[in-house]
């Protein structure tokens, strides 16, 4: 069993995303009430809302934190066709808000002609870069040339994916052997079109992103996608949330020295689980990439882990109200998790993509403590 405690989120509409900062001590939530809330964890383990403000003129789909090296910076994206960058400012000594923090909008990115469905910061070794994807099928990569001036962002790349985009994930590898890489998922409902996941790789010669791979076996709408932390591996691991949970391994094939095109990959599907018996809305890795969490319309978060033979299996099932899950008596005990206050009521009220209200909260909030259950590999200091 694990202990479930609820947070009175006080959002006036569905919660679509929950995001932790780098250290796991701060949390941001966003909602169809057009607001973002920031939460701080106290020494006693309780979460307190320290900021809440209207961010967009439409539903806010995603919110994400920049690496703390760049300050306390958030990005959000919305149905209103924009993405926004926010920075926390602490009041100056001569300010009446002395010592108090408040969030200010640094920029609004208005290039999309349709709903902006996801926003992600690039790995910090690439500098302060931000990627958005939109229902118009375009992925846009922005860069802040001066990290001290977050009001200036330049559009560096536009990648046309042909299909409506729903989610993006950067490959976090900092190895020189791995060029910058972005995975893009599509929620296009037409199953006749295969390849709902596309991989784009940066080419130093052309200074553009080119398609390196299409996962043709993914034919259903993709709701979330996540590269696992790399930790020095020569290959890449990608988790996908669609009508089930899938884990792919992308093994780079040896390049000829004269080749200037994108890397070719051997694509292997290493796991596929339909245990949720429903749409899967979020997938998220722990920091050592040894544990994957998924959330689905069954109202549960399921934890997946591979053994030394690389066979993946379910190691835990978390339910928002703390009640036992049938068949989970052998699961790890004493898991502390925090879940959004809407978990109970939303289960009955929601359907379709809006079910991310409770499920995202459950997934993201459950990860903080469960990640600590998995010891890091011996090569991680």
UniProtKB/TrEMBL annotation:
**InterPro entries reported for this sequence:** Sec13/Seh1_fam, WD40/YVTN_repeat-like_dom_sf, WD40_PAC1, WD40_repeat_dom_sf, WD40_rpt
Sorted alphabetically, the keyword list is:
Cell cycle, Cell division, Centromere, Chromosome partition, Kinetochore, Lysosome, Mitosis, mRNA transport, Nuclear pore complex, Nucleus, Protein transport, Repeat, Translocation, Transport, WD repeat
Which SUPFAM superfamilies does its entry note?
Answer: WD40 repeat-like
One MF term in the entry's GO annotations: structural molecule activity
- In the record for this protein, the WD repeats are positioned at 8-40, 273-305
The processes (GO biological process) annotated in the record are: cell division; cellular response to amino acid starvation; chromosome segregation; positive regulation of TORC1 signaling; protein transport
Q: What's the protein here called? A: SEH1 like nucleoporin
**Organism classification, top ranks?**
Eukaryota, Metazoa, Chordata, Craniata, Vertebrata
This protein's encoding gene: SEH1L
